[in-house]
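Slide 14.
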Amino acid sequence: MKYTGDMHNESPIPDQSAGEPRGVSWGLERRLQFIDFRLRWEGRLNRTDLTEHFGLSTPQASLDIAKYSELAPGNLTYDRSSRTYVAAAEFRPLFPRSSARRYLAELLATKTGLLEPGASFIGLAPEVDSAPSPWRALDERTVETLVKAIRQKHAIDVTYQSMSSIEATRRQLSPHALGYDGFRWHVRAYCHWRERFSDFVLARILDINAFEPSQIDPRLDTQWHTVLTLVLAPHPDLPATTRRVLELDYGMQDGEVKLPCRQAFLYYTLRRLGLHAKGHSDPAAQQIALKNREELQPYIDAVGAST
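Slide 15: predicted structure.
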């Protein structure tokens, strides 16, 4: 299965069709999101939380809570003994910003230092840690220069250290996007030397110079703009009980889950999932299978030929 065009992420702006608020200012909307988030994940909120996080006056904090109560009257009650607003038993989140995925992402980002505590809506965080992974080297100036080249549609001359050559080589690139494969950052660019679009690991770019306007149209990068659907399923040779557990782990419906993936990320995705090799694998070691491999094989081969 495939379609062409950009992948869509969950919008942070409430959807009017879902009965969520519209027509409020960005500042007020963000504060309403904060109230919603704190009530869901900490079960309580008071005006001090708002005044300290946003630098509001107490009267303004009271107005914001009143506005939230108007939009979601069943979500909070006032506990006079503790002088605190608490989440009602029938609480239902009003904003996508309060999703479990966002909460866990903020926990991890705060733990790893990618997000300062003051930038997160989390107040009282539970203990959290993650399996360590080596941080790939990144040069601040390289990232800054690449973003500038993408924004201004410039071609650049770079010195690049590839895996296939002992010596670094000079190349002219026309970059148009950044990508992350789960371990490393890449820049997606047209290589004028090889005359094709490809991925270049940021840490292997040794220097950048010679900006000039690019004549390359990023829309011609077919592998970037083609989005495929990977159909994942439990390995068919696993016992029924194990297959059921995997269905729960991956949120499968009817024994499968569909994963959208740009063709440019296909190799990285399959490798992370242990699905990059053809043939039957040991179900105890490789518990999920690519159900539509035959359909995707031409795209897999195309990606392999361009690496």
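Speaker note: Confidence is low (pLDDT under 50) at residues 3-23.
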